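Structure, all two chains, one model.
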Amino acid sequence: MDLSAINPVLLIASLMVAATPILLAAIGELVVEKSGVLNLGVEGMMIIGAVSGFAIAVESGSPWLGFVASAVAGAVFSLLFVLLTQVAKANQVASGLALTLTGLGLSALLGQSYVGIRPPQMGKLDIPLLSDLPVLGPILFGHDPILYLGIALTAGVWALLKFTRAGLVLRAVGENHDAAHALGYKVIRIRIMAIMFGGACAGLGGAYISLIRVPQWTEGMTAGVGWIALALVVFASWKPWRALLGAYLFGGVTVVQLNLQAAGVAIPVEYLAMSPYVITIIVLVILSADKSSAPAALGRNFHASR
Amino acid sequence: MTVPLLSLQGLTKAYPGVVANDTVSFDIGEGEVHALLGENGAGKSTLVKMIYGLVKPDSGQMLLRGAPYAPAEPRAARGDGIAMVFQHFSLFDALNVAENIALGMEDPPAMKDLASRIRDVSESYGLPLDPFRTVGNLSAGERQRVEIIRCLLQDPKLLIMDEPTSVLTPQEVDILFETLQKLRSEGTSILYISHKLEEIRTLCDHATILRLGKNVGECTPADTSARQMAELMVGSTLHTPERICVEFGAVALDISGLSVPAPSAFGTALKNVHMTVRKGEILGIGGVAGNGQDELLNVLSGETTTQPDAVKLNGTPIGHLGPEERRRLGVLAAPEERLGHAAVPDMSLTENAMLTGAVRQGLATRGFLNWGAAREFAETIIKEFDVRTPGPQNTARSLSGGNLQKFVIGREVLQDPDVLVVNQPTWGVDAAAAADIRQSLLDLAAKGAAIICISQDLDELMEISDNFAALNEGRLSAPRAAAGLTVDEIGLMLGGAHGMEVAHD
């Protein structure tokens, strides 16, 4: 056993990378759920984003185009969910599961010719002086731009929900869609926009896995990250900063347990592998003791006729 | 004559199967308080929804100060100075007062300015309100203030109020009326919808009466008796429920020292409740919504179980028994919320009859259901209580509120209970049907059942109850004989004006 092989600075830097896909997907789903819609298709939208981002980045040679394509693909794919739940008023839970299964199958089909290829690399942020700082440099100033985008999105969504009228209307729609309709707000339109935003974020999260974290394409490579993001939204009590905390915690334990495995700690690998899930859920359950904050209309379909 | 503020000309709106409004015409003058009267399903709500832009008329037109007025959506109506206070509050529980008000405004100012404007307006109209409180924690009267202030902040020319007093104490009603008088004196017109005819007589300048979607008459409320107006609404003569005087028997239900913690963050704890009801007695329990009515009903019906000794039926402890065992012993209940509590919305009337009738009507044997008998039972309820529906195969949701209420009350009354607990038995029910329901409760009491009637309608409680007690913040007052109680005394029993004293300045 050799714990001295674990470098804390690299550990923190890599946990931020491990956390970013979860964070992106969770922030998108948070906005969706705040509007009163429960979309269980996060995993499906992520893998669609992962495969389309990967394909476009390989074909065009530009990781930037890949990320744009992944966001667009995620949003377009979420339109299937929109069609089922907002237009046809189908059950949201069943539709979300259908979205996940469709996404996993469709991505495997689309990605067949991309297995085993290396995607173009996205450059790391490199600010002279700042990036060269000891300790702080690699942690704060040495990442790829999408990681910062994830943090910026968290701050943006937090500010939108707390300070802006658009955020207030979004919360109102998720709280009581009948009252919002009576006041003249377009419930369905607002929800469609929220679902598409959620799709775009999930797509970005997926592409982050296939283009930066891994980086390569394999079938089913999101491996449950979408489900973790869904659970994270609930346990974070629909609060953006808590979602960030939860994502970093999950990413952190994942990286630590990998390092411990590599260092040969005498704990069975299975326990180490399950530890991120167990620890994240325990911590967030404790944090979410104030349960009253679920959007009141979550998962309920809106019929304007009544 | 001057141009009226709003003139409705031949408005018609049909839904599949019913004509909600059939060529309705009337005028609302400047600074006039205009009452809109009618039974349930007479088309009042559809009519105001057309004025507020939520529903588009099939034909007919509206003129606002002589100019054509056809709002495409509520936003346009608000822009033209039409504001509406909804019957079922259109508020967001998890948001605070200022956020709720901002949502109903076109160009809300920044939160800080809005908060100070809310304070100004609420104080000048005698409706004190803290902008930063969460709406979920407010009383019904305070919630209504939020809606009214939301309207007032936009300087409306016409204020539409749909059943505004149904949840208020008498003192709160007085304060509301003072506010409305003040608005009228400032030139605001008010369209006032209510079932309560005495209120309309004191407040309104003019009344239009709707029946089955048609305008069947207009009157000046001050010169017309409540009875005449009621008969115009119903289209036939009304009979007042009659009490056949009976001697009370032994104590049927006895509750002593009952305390139950609040079931949820928005619930109310019951604190040291004592009451006894004798056979043949009707105990009326008044109080503003949210003071423990639902919790009390749950304790009586067995949905919340307690110490065995806290609730006694004929001297036997039953506090630990659930609803099914209590039904077997003869304690039945009809809760307030019709859809989802008293009845399952998407199940047929036969299935709903089975759900509470199985035990006492012998509709189930050894776990097998006797659907034929359940159907007969449902048909009996429909016949005896004049429930208007094509048949027992229809779902509970398809019935109008008043009809479903008749079904729900009828289902319990026909099971010959020894103790019947009802919560808001005539809520949202029109005058004729309400009279029928009250009569059936009186008849049941005359047969020797003990009845507990929880209601917010004080006129109803005075009409049918022998004794009256008030529920305030989970505490039950000592019961007093209902005969001879004055409105002021009742108001004091209900706990005064609920922090509205400021408004008397």
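The interface with chain B takes residues 165, 168-169, 171-172, 175-176, 178-180, 182-185, 292-293, 295-296 of chain A (CB under 8 Å).
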